[in-house]
């Protein structure tokens, strides 16, 4: 499994532009599109029809909604990313006795809190770190799609990937930031807490993220 880490040069709320816009960000967009092979025009910093068509070609190539406008998601895809390859942990033939029979996870962003439920009963509760204001943790209903042991680095000792883009629940190498809005959208936990959660859930466990 590949995990993409990006370092954004601009705030996402400033990257929504369309035809008629001009400025350094448009010139930067044209330069990136030219490197990607989608734009052959002059780097003049004006969002014209040629720039719009090049951006639409990039969006189609990436499987994004083809709007011809620079959206935050398109901007993220345009950025160079550091890729970390991690191998999924071997799956046991059956759930271990340590896992719960009907677990689900509730993450409350306002409280920076993750609660693990067994059926409708709270079973464990831990503090978490969430996304920064300009790279927020997504709100919605998801599920655990992958479990990886010891991914290392910023992912700590456990990775529990969601079935949504590259977001996941994971450990950390910066435990002093737990409780804050510091990530690119993922949910960070203290490593011992992530390890305990990892052992109690399975692929397919529902994850509900609420404000």
Automatic annotation (TrEMBL):
Gene Ontology biological process terms, A to Z: cell wall organization; peptidoglycan-protein cross-linking; regulation of cell shape
Alphabetical list of Pfam families matching this protein: PG_binding_1 (PF01471), YkuD (PF03734)
Pathway membership: Cell wall biogenesis; peptidoglycan biosynthesis
Keyword annotations from UniProtKB, A to Z: Cell shape, Cell wall biogenesis/degradation, Glycosyltransferase, Hydrolase, Peptidoglycan synthesis, Transferase
InterPro entries, A to Z: LD-transpeptidase, LD_TPept_cat_dom, Peptidoglycan-bd-like, PGBD-like_sf, PGBDSf, Transpep_catalytic_dom
Single GO cellular component term: extracellular region
Residues annotated as the enzyme's active site: 170, 186
GO molecular function: glycosyltransferase activity; peptidoglycan L,D-transpeptidase activity
Matches recorded under Gene3D superfamilies: L,D-transpeptidase catalytic domain-like, PGBD-like superfamily/PGBD
Residue stretches making up the L,D-TPase catalytic domain: 103-210
Cell wall biogenesis/degradation listed as a keyword: yes
The keyword ATP-binding appears for this protein: no
Family, per entry: Belongs to the YkuD family.
Protein name: ErfK/YbiS/YcfS/YnhG family protein
UniProt organism field: Thermosinus carboxydivorans Nor1
